[in-house]
Amino acid sequence: MTTPTDRPTARTPLQQAALLAGVVFLLVGVLGFVPGITTGYGSMEFAGHDSGAELLGLFQVSVLHNLVHLAYGLAGLVLARTAAGAYSYLLAGGAVYLVLWVYGLSVGHDSGANFVPLNSADDWLHFALGVGMIALALALGRRPAGRHAR
């Protein structure tokens, strides 16, 4: 007979990776609202390519962009509670970032379609995040050798 204290509470490496990603996205979302860390803070728009704010003076941000990072971070924290949720978060999240990468390369940075907003630094960061998140999901989500689902 097991008691509640007998259950393992350790997170898998997959869950730890999703949790770390969630914390980083939360941090980025918060930092996007901090003047000084975000340059051009006074020119931040809610959305659109006209936002002159840049996180770390490099990545173009807006209120919407920061809110998306916060929501993405919260999703990571919640989904990291289970291995299946962590896997889905990293795999689907990586796919979303690859779509954002293609989107950023496809729309003009001065176009009205660039509503997030995205600049070249954002585009390549999205590529790296997409590949990295998918790689983590696939590498850490594998079953150990010799153990097969039945």
Helices and strands in order:
Blueprint (H helix, E strand, L loop, with lengths): L12 H19 L6 E2 L14 E2 L3 E2 L2 H17 L3 H24 L13 H21 L10
Antiparallel strand pairs: 1-2, 2-3
Structure class:
mainly alpha
**Total strands:** 3
The parts where pLDDT drops under 50 for at least 5 residues are 145-150
What is the residue-mean pLDDT, rounded to a whole number? 90
**Largest sheet data:** 3 strands, antiparallel
Percent helix range: 40-55%
Order of helices and strands: HEEEHHH
Portion in strands:
under 5%
Task: List the strand order in the largest sheet.
Answer: 1-2-3
Rg on CA atoms, Å: 18 Å
Per DSSP, the total helix count is 4
Distance between the ends: 24 Å
Shape: globular
Describe the structure.
This protein has 4 helices and 3 strands, in the order αβββααα. It has a 3-stranded antiparallel sheet. The protein is mainly alpha-helical. The longest helix has 24 residues, at 83-106.
Summary tags:
mainly alpha; 150 residues; 54% helix; globular; 3-stranded antiparallel sheet; 3 strands
Report a brief summary of the structure.
By secondary structure, this protein is mostly helical. It is 54% helix and 4% strand. Helix 2 (63-79) packs antiparallel against helix 3 (83-106).
